What does this fold into?
Amino acid sequence: MYGYAHHWSNAMTREENFVEGSCLSNETITDWYSYCREAVVTYQVDKQESKGKIGGPGKIVQIDESKFGKRKYNKGRRVEGYWVLGMIENGSEDLRLEVCPDNVRSAEVLIPLIKKHVADYWKAYDCLRDHGYEHLKVNHSDPDNPFVTSDEPTGPTTVRTTVTTTPPEKFHLGTEKMNWYGTNVYCQRNNWKLLVLDSAEIQKEFEDFIKRKNLQNLNYWTAGNQLVDMKTWHWDLDGPAFNYTHWAKGQPDNYKGSQHCLQLFANSLQWDDCNCEIHMNFACLKY
It folds into this structure.
């Protein structure tokens, strides 16, 4: 137990034995370490009180799976017991543990458990990127960087997983040009909405997003329009009136009396009123 508490390996425990000569077998040390781990897990599961989520943008969360329970006939690999999912943020002592229901470790089980504790590799881990996480494998054979490796480590790996939480993309760019009406239908079918820029903050977010993708040389539809009364500018057909604007100089001008939908000028991404029937690029707001 002293060796376990000081994070000694099996070999070091044998070397640091107080009795002269080798009297502890590897199996005995492994059994004692397993017992200590199970005691810690049992206590933690019973006593843990979650205080919000761990992780966040730029944070790293270590995630590990282990099975706890008795070995069949007290020898060989452990085959009876419960699979436990452990999560802890680097530099923190806030450990989170979850018992896998019915010992199932599929994506349907593990992803909700991870999302329960980790802020916005079994096969279950393959889809972490779809949920806003970045998956990095573990390579204990690398002495310089033993924990985090690339997706294709060369040394032996374990099922322990390291994830860095990165916010999922807020915007989705349409793949083909459409008129203003078609863009609304497209976004709504995907449970999104056409781009709403109702504050300076969201305007800058979108500008930064477009510049990262080097696509600022295109025009984009937004949800802005005055189709309800042809006078007042609103977001969506039934949304709020504008309380923030970023019009280009001289806009809106309702050229020829037919410009009732809001586009973003290429490059400057300033606002301009435009004929709703024109086909152009667009962006959906995902959340």
About this structure: The chain has a mean pLDDT of 77. The first helix runs from residue 2 to 5. Residues 51-165 form one domain. The helical segments are 2-5, 10-15, 26-47, 107-117, 180-189, 200-212.
